[in-house]
Amino acid sequence: MGFIQLLSVASFPVIKVLLVTAIGLFLALDDISILGEDSRKKVNQLVFYVFNPSLVGSNLAKTITFESIVQLWFMPLNILCTFILGSALGWILIKMTRPPKHMEGLILGCCSAGNLGNLLIVIIPAICKESGNPFGDSDVCYQYGMAYAALSMAIGAVFIWSYVYNIMRISSSRIQKEDNTGNGINILKASAEASESRTDNFSETLNPTKDATDDAYTLLLPHAKPEEKVSISRKIKHHLGVISSNLNFKAMFAPSTLGAIAGFIIGVISPMRNFIIGSSAPLHVVEESVFMLGDAAVPTLTLIMGANLLKGLKGSTTPVWTVVGIVAVRYIFLPLLGVAVVKGAIHFSLVHSDALYQFVLLLQYALPPAMNIGTIAQLFGAGESECSVIMLWTYILAAVAVTLWSTFFMWLVL
Predict the structure, then answer these.
(1) Which of 88, 105, 124, 147 has a Cα-to-Cα distance from 176 of 20 to 30 A?
(2) pLDDT digits (tens, 9 = 90+) for 220-273
(3) Contact 338, 366 (CB under 8 A)
(4) What is the pLDDT of residues 107-141, one digit of tens each?
């Protein structure tokens, strides 16, 4: 296929996403208020608890078998690479631009976590349904493309709520701790100065600033315990306990992840698969009902995505170079690194020869930040308005960036 034809195939799905996103943004306007804040929360809960699990579980159950699991083993590793490489680039961006402290966790989250679920679930089926798509028969492309996208959504959710969640949690707690420490020092300094004014001769023997600082640390930090020898096994056990206590297991095993687990079980266990999947299966009505619910996920997700961008239009004090840096990371440097990773995996025969599968692996490096980052920012109250501005610009520019990278990736794998 020629470049113009590939560009046409890649651009139409993104244009469809933009049109539905614009409708969601319009419905969220104050004068319309169909998708106001309260409405969005309720619809989001419906998507989170019903539509997404149905979509993920139904597509995985229909396409995943034990043989295909062996072939798809590289996808979790590839998604982990997107997070690690994105975090490294985000760290470099923080060192170069020196943003406000409360934005550091947000920047790392936006650079490391892409929209591995919602956007893939919209783009991949749209490409497969385009006439003249480069991946063969539309029905087969759709079936396998949805399985790849559903698997990406499930794995991405686990990484976001274990990795990014804890990065942003640690960052926000550190800022709060520094603020509390600063406030404590200021209070103690004021107290020391008042004491000094009452007893001038007392100041000759004490350093108020040093004493106040020492007192603040004594009050705010736990008392140091005398060092004692601890075995390596106890240290490892202690660190594992700290990590496990800080992981948000409830969020990691979100309904989408549970839907993926159910889909895997049904797909891999042949008796269950034959009992539920297929037009001749005794419980095929269950499969069709779940598919019907899953079909509602894509348009609803896209409408909510557009409505959530409204905050970004209302303005914020987000540093311009920080936004520019995140856009450069997500749409220039990370996709280039992704090409190197995936082509290297293909060279060493770690990835099978399915062009659609390779395309999905590459596309995972060229997506805008995950919408869940906004939820996490809201949860910790750190950088909510800045997050809205970042989301607004990254999703506006996604129209061009994702289209161009999709075109290049299709040319690369064919």
Answers:
(1) 88
(2) 333 444 445 566 677 666 655 655 565 556 666 778 778 888 888 888 888 888
(3) yes
(4) 999 999 998 877 888 788 888 887 777 888 888 88
Closest CA to 117 of 346, 386, 373, 388: 373
Q: What are residue 369's DSSP bridge partners? A: 114
Question: CA 39, CA 28: separation in Å to the nearest integer?
Answer: 9
Structural tokens at position 27: 């419905």
Report pTM: 0.75
Q: Which two tokens stand for residue 269?
A: 């266990």
Residues 117/255, Cβ–Cβ less than 8 Å: no
CA 93 to chain centre: 18
Let me know if 340 is exposed, middle or buried by CB neighbors in 10 A (0-12, 13-18, 19+): exposed
The C-alpha atoms of residue 373 and residue 382 are separated, in whole angstroms, by 11
State both tokens at 255.
Answer: 């309904």
For residues 232 and 234, what is the distance between their CA atoms, to the nearest angstrom?
Answer: 5
User: What structural domains and CATH numbers belong to the chain?
Assistant: 3-179+254-413 (1.20.1530)
